[in-house]
């Protein structure tokens, strides 16, 4: 009994010290309000926290959940990878050669300003109602921010680095990939992070608009079948994916560029 | 030796005629794109129409088509979304910065909501609030508010203690404190968020129009897609791109004006 009590005490102390107690409390209150409001005010099929909990096992043990997750997340990771490589190459060229920058910047900046969701219809029209349309949109979503941030990052190298490089006889590719690229790493990671965020949103948009199998389409489909609890399980999975990608990006920035501090 | 002198000569030309080369690059890129578009369009068939056809269709859509009316519908949603995002974002940001407990309690959820793709929340918004105007506003605001909210929150938190102490020791009232210290200090943070929100409100407007009973510009785009009318889709896409560039440009100008000391200080 004594041991049990002290364990609770330790645990409580830990909770307070880590600053978790208020978020947990707020979460419980929010979920409670949600549950009570829906149960008393809204029709039965609207999702509730307990309903989601009940729907969780049957939803994630279903084959369709994993096939949708693999399709969507796979396309996002693949598309961001392709877009990042292309964006870095174009971005370094834009950052280091002013003529290339002037030649390309009109379009890259215009496309960067454009809400990419406006491109979804034309991409669907050109690529067709198939998974390749989703991949295309994700590639574009990642390419633009990475190209812009890489160009900005590689342009702003202090002359001292370049002078030292020149003294040691650096060739052009040494300057590009040995000096400019490492200097721009924090910018590039920020670009990839933005690319992931936009890629996730736009991938879902394509799925819904073109009826391509995946997480986004399933959310809408289950919701249309008034199976809101199962639908929210998919939303939760999407949120977990998005949050993990975000923290992965922050970690990788600390790991790749430990000298860089955010703001 | 010869190679070095050639390289030096090229560098000399690049430095001496930088402005001309720059303008030539801009002009060349536009001309080349239009030529390529025209050439491809003529040889590609129905799915990719030439530049002139696209512009002609854009003119038709504007003069006696649905585009201007749709633009009015979308513009209204955009204006309401941006206004609510700014007012609510700045207000909530300041309140949360003052109330440490509430901020500690709700901040993780704000970040999770920010990271969650808002499109996936559309079905729940529509179940709770329907498909009409205010439901669209909720979806659009959920997309565009976070950069302002988080920016103001961060700005208000990073006000140096010294600023507040100096103001207090000169006997400034609460109103003066806000006008002379707090608001000027958070303006750059808020403007960074607002600039992002200018673009994101457009995303929000389009998402709300695409996914809650199609309406406005998004409806014109969708109709073109279902009828395989690539000229209309291309025309409206170019039109939306032009509006986006103008809006983002205006946002940047306002930021430069409101936070001009930052740009002059850096040089």
Strand content of chain A: under 5%
Overall shape of chain B: flat
Helical fraction of chain B equals: over 70%
Give me the strand/helix succession of chain A.
HHHHHHHHHHH
Question: What order do the SSEs of chain B take from the amino end to the carboxyl end, as H and E?
Answer: HHHHHHHHHHHHH
User: Please, how many domains of chain A?
Assistant: 2
Query: How many domains, in number, for the residues of chain B?
Result: 2
Mean pLDDT value of chain A:
86
Structure description:
The complex is a heterodimer of chains A (263) and B (267). With 263 residues, chain A is mostly helical. Chain A has 2 domains: 2-42; 55-256, MetI-like (MetI-like fold, Orthogonal Bundle). Helices cover 83% and strands 0% of the residues of chain A. Chain A has helices at 2-17, 21-41, 49-60, 63-96, 98-113, 120-127, 131-155, 159-167, 172-210, 215-224, 228-256. In chain A, helix 4 (63-96) runs antiparallel to helix 9 (172-210). The longest helix of chain A is centred in the last third of the chain and has 39 residues, at 172-210. The termini of chain A are far apart. By secondary structure, chain B is mainly alpha-helical. Chain B is built from 13 helices and no strands. The chains are: A mainly alpha (263), B mainly alpha (267). The interface between A and B is large, with 56 and 55 residues.
Index terms:
heterodimer; A: 263 residues; mainly alpha; MetI-like fold; 11 helices; flat; B: 267 residues; 2 domains; 86% helix; 0% strand
Question: Could you give a quick summary of the protein structure above?
Answer:
The complex is a heterodimer of chains A (about 260) and B (about 270). Chain A is built from eleven helices and no strands.
Layout of strands and helices, then pairs:
The complex is a heterodimer of chains A (263) and B (267).
Chain A: H1 2-17, H2 21-41, H3 49-60, H4 63-96, H5 98-113, H6 120-127, H7 131-155, H8 159-167, H9 172-210, H10 215-224, H11 228-256
Helix pairs in contact in A: 3-11, 4-5, 4-7, 4-9, 5-7, 6-7, 7-9, 9-10, 9-11, 10-11
Chain B: H1 2-16, H2 18-44, H3 51-64, H4 67-98, H5 100-115, H6 122-129, H7 133-144, H8 146-157, H9 161-169, H10 174-211, H11 216-226, H12 230-258, H13 260-266
Helix pairs in contact in B: 3-12, 4-7, 4-8, 4-10, 4-11, 6-7, 7-10, 8-10, 10-11, 10-12, 11-12, 12-13
């Amino acid at each position: 009994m004594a041991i049990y009590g002290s364990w609770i005490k330790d645990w409580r102390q830990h909770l307070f010290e880590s600053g978790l107690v208020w978020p947990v409390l707020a979460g419980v209150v929010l979920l409670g309000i949600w549950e009570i409001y829906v149960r008393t005010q809204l029709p039965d099929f609207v999702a509730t926290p307990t309903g989601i909990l009940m729907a969780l096992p049957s939803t994630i043990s279903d084959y369709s959940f994993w096939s949708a997750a693999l399709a969507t997340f796979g396309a996002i990771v693949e598309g961001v990878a392709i877009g990042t490589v292309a964006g870095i190459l174009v971005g370094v060229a834009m950052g280091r050669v002013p003529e290339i920058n002037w030649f390309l910047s009109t379009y890259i900046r215009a496309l960067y300003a454009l809400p990419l969701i406006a491109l979804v219809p034309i991409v669907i029209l050109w690529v067709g109602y198939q998974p390749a349309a989703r991949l295309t949109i994700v590639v574009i979503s990642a390419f633009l921010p990475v190209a812009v941030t890489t160009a900005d990052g590689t342009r702003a190298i202090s002359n001292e680095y370049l002078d030292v490089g020149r003294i040691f006889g650096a060739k052009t590719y040494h300057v590009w990939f040995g000096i400019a690229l490492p200097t721009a790493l924090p910018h590039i990671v920020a670009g990839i992070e933005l690319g992931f965020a936009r890629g996730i949103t736009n991938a879902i948009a394509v799925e819904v608009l073109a009826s391509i199998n995946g997480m986004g389409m399933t959310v809408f489909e289950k919701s249309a079948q008034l199976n809101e609890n199962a639908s929210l399980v998919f939303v939760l999975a999407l949120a977990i994916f998005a949050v993990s990608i975000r923290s992965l990006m922050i970690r990788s920035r600390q790991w790749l560029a430990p000298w860089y501090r955010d703001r | 030796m010869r190679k070095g002198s050639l390289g030096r000569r090229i560098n000399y030309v690049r430095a001496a005629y930088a402005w001309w080369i720059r303008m030539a690059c801009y002009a060349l890129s536009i001309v080349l794109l239009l030529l390529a578009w025209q050439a491809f369009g003529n040889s590609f068939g129905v799915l990719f129409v030439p530049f002139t056809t696209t512009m002609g269709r854009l003119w038709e859509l504007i003069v006696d088509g649905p585009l201007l009316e749709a633009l009015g519908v979308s513009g209204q949603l955009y204006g309401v979304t941006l206004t609510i995002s700014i007012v609510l974002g700045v207000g909530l940001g300041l309140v949360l910065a003052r109330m440490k407990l509430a901020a500690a309690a709700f901040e993780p959820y704000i970040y999770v909501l920010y990271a969650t793709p808002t499109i996936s929340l559309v079905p729940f918004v529509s179940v709770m609030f329907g498909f009409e105007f205010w439901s669209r506003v909720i979806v659009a605001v959920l997309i565009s508010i976070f950069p302002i909210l988080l920016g103001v929150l961060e700005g208000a938190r990073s006000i140096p203690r010294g600023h507040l102490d100096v103001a207090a020791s000169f006997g400034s009232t609460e109103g003066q404190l806000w006008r002379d210290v707090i608001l000027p200090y958070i303006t750059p943070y808020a403007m960074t968020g607002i600039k992002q929100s200018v673009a994101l409100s457009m995303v929000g407007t389009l998402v709300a129009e695409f996914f809650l009973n199609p309406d406005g510009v998004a409806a014109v785009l969708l109709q073109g897609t279902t009828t395989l009318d690539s000229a209309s889709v291309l025309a409206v896409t170019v039109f939306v791109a032009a509006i986006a560039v103008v809006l983002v440009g205006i946002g940047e100008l306002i930021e430069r004006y409101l936070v001009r000391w930052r740009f002059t200080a850096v040089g």
